[in-house]
Specification:
This protein is mostly helical. The chain has one domain. Helix content is 77%, strand content 0%. It is built from six helices and no strands. Helix 1 packs across helix 2 and helix 4 runs antiparallel to helix 5.
């Protein structure tokens, strides 16, 4: 993908994530069980990704690639499922703005810590006053969205 499309693609993905949380909340309401709703949602994701993999099976990792992979790398999907479950469970009660706002703000705060300390094998990007200001504005913005 051309680098010029990176941020627009991420922007659209973020918009879809907000819509997906609302869709998941409705799925949960319809099914009456957040575990079943999360499972149904992930089964569809599994089907789509397995189909795409069948259509585009390359590249495949080498044995060396698998040996060098950290033990925690495959857990990203489970970690993401926690956010999906939280959205499915609380979005009908709290609204899309507060749920997505808190989710995104928590994501930003955790991302800044990951960047600052170089956690999870990420390249280090030190905290600076402007990043701190951005984080504070996120917290302030989501507080306003949640209260009003």
């Amino acid at each position: 993908m051309n680098a010029a499309w990176d941020f627009p693609f991420i922007f659209v993905a973020g918009m879809l994530q907000a819509a997906g949380a609302a869709m998941g909340g409705e799925l949960n309401k319809s099914l009456g069980n957040p575990w079943l709703a999360t499972s149904a949602s992930f089964m569809l994701v599994l089907f789509v990704t397995a189909t795409l993999f069948a259509c585009m099976p390359r590249p495949l990792p080498s044995v060396g690639d698998l040996a060098a992979m950290p033990w925690w790398a495959p857990l990203g999907g489970i970690v993401g499922a926690v956010a999906v479950f939280a959205g499915f469970t609380f979005i009908q009660k709290l609204g899309a703005g507060p749920v997505n706002g808190v989710t995104i703000t928590a994501n930003i705060l955790a991302s800044l810590a990951i960047d600052h300390f170089g956690l999870l094998r990420m390249e280090q990007h030190s905290m600076n006053p402007m990043r701190f200001l951005g984080a504070a504005l996120m917290v302030g913005g989501v507080t306003l969205i949640s209260k009003f």
